[in-house]
């Protein structure tokens, strides 16, 4: 793979992560546990869709085939999507939404802090902007994890279930594939392996304060970076891409 | 010494253009009218999130998705401002929500219509928000201080809502045949309900006269409706949409458009609960309100356990 | 079914630019300090309206009673000597 191709795919799948998680959160509009939280989740969703746009515009420019960010979002099939499996998991109850937010935002904080140092100037600039947003997402998710974990018996149980249910999707976040490896010596991509310890420590701190247990590392799901997804992604895309697919000649 | 607690004194203050604040004396009917109107307004904003919300996950571009999300979020925010303003009159949000869910409190009937194709998002922004803004601009001068302040903020934020809706309609009318058909279909379905949003004719409006005397309402239903009609018809014509009313005529003398008769039977039928989506909208609200109850309980429980120690920033 | 809660009511004050006063923006519901601050941020600074936020529980606001308005505010109406325009300056005096 040429360096350009590798950067294209790298930017594209980072965009996919943001797009699919942003989509999931957008599903919650008018479904929050209280009006204030409804607005907070929408803000996070908007941050993510904004990040998607920046990454897709960059990916399209590298690809050089005259595509738009919308072509990339709305005209690819699920096996061409590279988002992590955890981003496409259903919202579930509020505890599942928060557990997903906690795992992803704390990973992204570590990841984008490193990407800020990338030798690729555009990726570095996007990382700097997005990391401010992620810091807030992480605080929001951590606070709610603590409230729910240390709230009522019911909320404690639900939060622990959510943590347990989603744990098997967290291993994938730290996997290096050939694209990560190819761009690493160039100083462009992030080395994911060293992030794991910091991530584990952070999760442990939050879960401990939340009076929750850190799950044992069992089998970890994998495959998304190769385009092998859970069944969820197909449904997300068939809904998201409906108008673009049904009226291919229309401009919106 | 004058009596600050008299209705005459109150009316003098209103006539002098003063604003009334939460602790000021007010006649019981003024308070009741405000509570009803403000909570109804707040409920409308919150229930109003649903029809457009139906299209968030199917928005056809990243730009469209951001705009729509931001707009629906604004509506939630406006509901929140209005609940807060209404709470100054001594009714809690818990009570307002109970009144909404029990059917005791109403919300604008317009949101009992379905959003069936993407152009409906355009039509809602352009026509529904367009009608609402006419009313809301007028309400910025309403006599109750907290209501007036909320409306000033809301009007400022809503200024993009109508434009984004009209932009969608204009774009679709310039698009493919399918898109044009969708836009006209949405126009056909939303035009009359939008006109009904201003309420019954002045001669048939049960609340209007007191509300005008107290300057809660600054213009009458018919005055506001006419303003909306006059500005909207040329906008429709400009982009090639047909207004679904063959009786429309411009009165050259007054400069106002005359329209055909409004179907008030439909208006009262939908208010009475028999619109296409009345049950669906309330069921949705109740479902997610109930599903959120354990979360709210947990937040309160956490706060009680840690009342001495506030959450540490991680 | 337990009684519903919508959490506590808080008042929000926003400073739009450093150096300017904090102005009352509205209210939010929240259970604790951090939630109140975050909710205020998410609701009242979506359009870049703020550089700093204060929140406080509404129950701690003490308001003057409108019945006392005569006593509280009228007496200051005739203290014209508190305003600079009250004083007569000699013609031609500058920078004062």
Descriptive overview:
- The complex is a heterotrimer of chains A (252), B (314) and C (96).
- Chain A is an all-alpha fold.
- Chain A has a single domain (3-246), classed as Ferritin, core subunit, four-helix bundle (Ferritin, Up-down Bundle), CATH 1.20.1260.
- Chain A contains 11 helices and no strands.
- The mean pLDDT of chain A is 97.
- Chain B has 314 residues and is an all-alpha fold.
- Chain B has one domain: Ferritin, core subunit, four-helix bundle (Ferritin, Up-down Bundle), CATH 1.20.1260.
- Helices cover 65% and strands 1% of the residues of chain B.
- In chain B, helix 4 (62-87) runs antiparallel to helix 7 and helix 6 packs antiparallel against helix 10.
- The longest helix of chain B has 29 residues, at 145-173.
- The model of chain B has no long low-confidence stretch (mean pLDDT 93).
- Chain C is 18% helix and 23% strand.
- In chain C, strands 2-1-3 form a 3-stranded antiparallel beta sheet, with helices on one face.
- At the A-B interface, helix 1, helix 2, helix 3, helix 6 and helix 7 of A face helix 3, helix 4, helix 12 and helix 13 of B.
Topology:
The complex is a heterotrimer of chains A (252), B (314) and C (96).
Chain A: H1 3-26, H2 35-63, H3 69-74, H4 85-88, H5 94-115, H6 121-149, H7 153-167, H8 178-183, H9 195-209, H10 232-240, H11 242-246
Helix pairs in contact in A: 1-2, 2-6, 5-6, 5-7, 5-9
Chain B: H1 7-15, H2 28-47, H3 49-53, H4 62-87, H5 93-102, H6 118-139, H7 145-173, H8 177-196, H9 208-213, H10 221-238, E1 249-250, E2 257-258, H11 264-274, H12 278-291, H13 293-305
Antiparallel strand pairs in B: 1-2
Chain C: E1 8-15, E2 23-30, H1 33-44, E3 52-57, H2 69-73
Antiparallel strand pairs in C: 1-2, 1-3
């Amino acid at each position: 793979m040429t360096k350009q191709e590798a950067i294209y795919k790298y930017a594209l799948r980072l965009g996919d992560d943001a797009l699919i998680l942003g989509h999931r959160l957008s599903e919650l509009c008018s479904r929050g546990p209280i009006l204030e939280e409804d607005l907070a989740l929408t803000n996070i969703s908007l941050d993510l869709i904004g990040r998607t746009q920046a990454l897709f515009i960059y990916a399209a420019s590298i690809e050089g085939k005259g595509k738009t960010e919308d072509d990339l979002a709305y005209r690819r099939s699920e096996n061409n999507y590279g988002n992590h499996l955890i981003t496409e998991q259903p919202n579930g109850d509020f505890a599942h939404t928060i557990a997903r937010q906690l795992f992803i935002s704390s990973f992204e904080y570590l990841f984008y802090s490193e990407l800020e140092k990338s030798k690729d100037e555009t990726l570095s600039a996007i990382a700097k902007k997005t990391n401010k947003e992620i810091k807030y997402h992480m605080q929001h998710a951590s606070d709610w994890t603590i409230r729910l974990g240390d709230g009522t018996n019911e909320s404690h149980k639900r939060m622990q279930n959510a943590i347990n249910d989603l744990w098997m999707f967290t291993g994938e976040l730290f996997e290096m594939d050939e694209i990560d490896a190819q761009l690493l010596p160039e100083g462009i991509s992030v080395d994911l392996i060293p992030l794991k310890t910091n991530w584990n420590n952070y999760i442990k701190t939050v879960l401990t304060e939340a009076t929750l247990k850190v799950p044992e590392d069992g089998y970890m799901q994998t495959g998304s970076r190769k385009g092998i997804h859970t069944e969820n992604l197909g449904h997300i895309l068939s809904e998201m891409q409906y108008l673009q697919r049904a009226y291919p000649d229309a401009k919106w | 010494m004058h009596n600050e607690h008299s209705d005459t004194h109150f009316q003098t203050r209103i006539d002098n253009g003063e604003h009334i604040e939460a602790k000021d004396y007010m006649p019981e009917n003024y308070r009741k009218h405000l509570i009803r109107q403000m909570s109804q307004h707040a409920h409308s904003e919150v229930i109003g999130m649903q029809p457009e919300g139906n299209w968030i996950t199917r928005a056809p571009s990243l730009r469209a998705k951001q705009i729509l999300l931001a707009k629906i979020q604004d509506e939630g925010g406006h509901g929140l401002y209005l609940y807060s303003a209404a709470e100054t009159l001594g009714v809690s949000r818990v009570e307002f929500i109970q009144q909404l869910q029990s059917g005791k409190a109403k919300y604008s009937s317009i949101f009992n219509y379905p959003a069936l194709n993407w152009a409906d998002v355009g039509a809602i922004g352009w026509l529904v928000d367009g009608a609402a803004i006419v009313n809301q601009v007028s309400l910025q001068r309403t006599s109750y201080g907290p209501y007036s302040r909320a409306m000033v903020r809301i009007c400022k934020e809503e200024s993009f809502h109508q434009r984004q809706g009209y932009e969608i309609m204009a774009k679709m009318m310039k698009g493919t045949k399918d898109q044009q058909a969708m836009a006209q279909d949405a126009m056909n379905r939303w035009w009359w309900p939008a006109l009904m949003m201003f309420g019954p004719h002045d001669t048939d409006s049960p609340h209007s006269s007191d509300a005008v005397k107290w300057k809660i309402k600054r213009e009458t239903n018919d005055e506001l409706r006419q303003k909306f009609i006059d500005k909207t018809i040329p906008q429709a014509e400009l982009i090639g949409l047909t207004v679904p009313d063959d009786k429309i005529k411009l009165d050259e003398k007054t400069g106002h458009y005359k329209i055909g008769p409004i179907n008030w039977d439909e208006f009262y039928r939908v208010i009475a609960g028999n619109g296409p989506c009345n049950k669906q909208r309330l069921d949705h609200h109740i479902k997610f309100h109930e599903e959120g109850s354990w979360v709210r309980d947990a937040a309160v429980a956490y706060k009680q356990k840690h009342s001495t120690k506030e959450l540490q920033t991680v | 079914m337990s009684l519903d809660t919508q959490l506590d009511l808080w008042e929000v004050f926003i400073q739009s630019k450093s150096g300017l006063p904090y102005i009352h923006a509205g209210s939010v519901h929240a259970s604790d300090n951090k939630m109140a601050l975050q909710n205020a941020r998410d609701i009242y600074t979506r359009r870049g309206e703020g550089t700093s936020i204060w929140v406080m529980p509404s129950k701690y606001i003490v308001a003057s009673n409108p019945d006392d308005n005569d006593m509280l505010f009228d007496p200051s109406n005739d203290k014209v000597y508190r305003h600079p325009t009250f004083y007569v300056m000699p013609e031609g005096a500058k920078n004062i």
